[in-house]
Amino acid sequence: MDRNSLEALLAREVDIVDSALGEFGTTACVRSVQVAGQAYVSYELRLGRQQRLVGVEAVLDDIAARVAQHRRGPVKLRLRHQPSPAIEAPHPQPQALSWKGIAMGGPPSTAAVGISYSSGRPTPVQVSFDDAPHILVAGTTGSGKSTLLRSLLCTLAWRTPPDLLSLRLVDLKNEALVPFGGLPHCAGTGFCDRSAAQQVAAVEAELDRRIAHGGNAAQRLVLVVDELAQLDETAKARLGRILALGRSRRVHVVAATQHPTKQTVGEKANFPLRLVGRVTDAQASALCCGRPGAGAEQLPGKGAFVLVDGDVTRFQAADFTDAVAAGIVALLAQRWPRTGAEPVQETSFEAETAVLGARTGAEPVQEPVDGTAMFPLPKRPPTAGEADAIRSKAGEGLSLNKLVTLVYGTKNGTTFSWVKWALSDA
Fold first, then answer.
1. HEC string for the chain
2. Are 127 and 135 in contact (CB under 8 A)?
3. How far is residue 179's CA from residue 412's CA, in Å, rounded to a whole number?
4. pLDDT at residue 379 above 90?
5. CA-CA distance, 364 to 356, in Å (whole number)?
6. Cα–Cα distance between 268 and 278 in angstroms, integer?
7. Number of CB atoms found within 10 A of residue 339's CB
8. Phi/psi at 44 (nearest 5 deg)?
9. Which of 97, 336, 341, 393 has its CB 3.0 to 4.6 Å from that of 184, i.e. a possible disulfide?
């Protein structure tokens, strides 16, 4: 759709929204239109002196039906309360936000989670553990919760060396966090009930050690949990203590859930920063956001989130796929070597992706490809020729676990991520 066609479509939709608002007796109208990248369109509202947003909300479904008829397809609208009232509609030709648009560099102990358009121009959305000691990430299936977690962990680990950051990962679904077991920052993983409980207990033990010794540790310890509701009762009790006491000891929690309850989310003060995608209803939105009226139940999913830290800010999470995450983990293994040697002397993310090739979007290094790489390989990312050989072996019907063991002789988070990266370069 060219610019003139888009402007004509949006002008017609302004007429549709204004007509519906007038017919249903509200004193509200569209005062301007803001196009938020290719994520959504914001119809900014002017309210009459006595008009309340609840009156607009009452007719939102009727407006959505009329817009859907105009677009000849289903449309989900969201009524925005902050920073100014607006009706948000999906972009007529939506596209996922590429991970390449996210700035990998930044201060230590910060992470990038997406792009906000609330100011009228694309603005990076950053989180800092200095400002937000614990973070809740919530959303139903299809909300984009996993891709947001990948963005957070990739950028946090890129910006923060292992001597300043230690991660313990709990992923009882064995999905979003598995590739990050290969990070040099990773002190432990929990991918089953027993090991998950061990990771939470290890964080509590470190918290107790820091309390007993006093002072402030230089290294932050971040416990990342996905899915919060799957922790056993003992682990949940320990987690509650970590949330209450960890913030002053540089012990932090990033907890993700698609099953929010009062018991799993806990008190509002537990998570001062909340990143909430599409949820089932207004009650779930209020619980996850820690406040009513945030409108998370009206989000379309696919990476649309609100950041709640007192204010409510909509943003779009970038599309960090599992394969992209595995590739960046492999780069980080070279950027921050576990051996204590000096990191690879590359000054930018772009420079390092250029070395390792097209799997991360850059031109590949030209190496001979003979398809006869000898396994097991040394403990490093595969070359282009070795990646071809890995894919050839995968075509023989080997399971991923057997393939990783064949290629590297051992299976852990690092070797798992390298093989998944090779398989993604088809």
1. CCHHHHHHHHHHHHHHHHHHHHHCCCCEEEEEEEEECCCEEEEEEEECCCCCHHHHHHCHHHHHHHHHHHHCCCCCCEEECCCCCEEEEECCCCCCCEHHHCCCCCCCCEEEEEEECCCCCCEEEEEECCCCCEEEEECCCCCCHHHHHHHHHHHHHHHCCCCCEEEEEECCCCCCCHHHHHCCCEEEEECCHHHHHHHHHHHHHHHHHHHHHCCCCCCEEEEEEECHHHCCHHHHHHHHHHHHHHHHHCEEEEEEECCCCHHHHCCHHHCCEEEECCCCCHHHHHHHHCCCCCCHHHCCCCCEEEEECCCEEEEECCECCHHHHHHHHHHHHHHCCCCCCCCCCCCCHHHHHHHHCHHHCCCCCCCCCCCCCCCCCCCCCCCHHHHHHHHHHHCCCCCHHHHHHHHHCCCCHHHHHHHHHHHHCC
2. yes
3. 10
4. no
5. 7
6. 19
7. 6
8. -70, 135
9. 336
Please, are residues 221 and 168 in contact by the beta-carbon 8 Å criterion? yes
Is residue 207 a contact partner of residue 251, using CB atoms and an 8 Å limit?
yes
Q: Tell me which residue of 209, 215, 102, 216 sits closest to 151, measured CA to CA.
A: 102
pLDDT digits (tens, 9 = 90+) for 148-183: 999 999 999 999 999 999 999 999 888 889 899 999
Backbone angles phi, psi at 353, to 5 degrees: -65, -30
pTM of the model: 0.80
Strand partners of residue 274: 136, 308
Structure tokens at 328: 């960046």
- The residue among 109, 140, 149 whose CA lies nearest residue 127 is 109
Residue count (the chain): 426
Rounded CA gap, 365 and 372, in Å?
18
* Contacts with 361 (C-beta within 8 Å, 6 or more apart), sequence order: 100, 353
Q: What are the tens digits of pLDDT across the range 209-236?
A: 999 998 778 899 999 999 999 999 999 9
**Side-chain half-sphere CA neighbours of 152 within 13 A:** 23
CA 27 to chain centroid, in Å, comes to: 39
Burial class of 426 by CB neighbour count within 10 A (0 to 12, 13 to 18, 19+): exposed
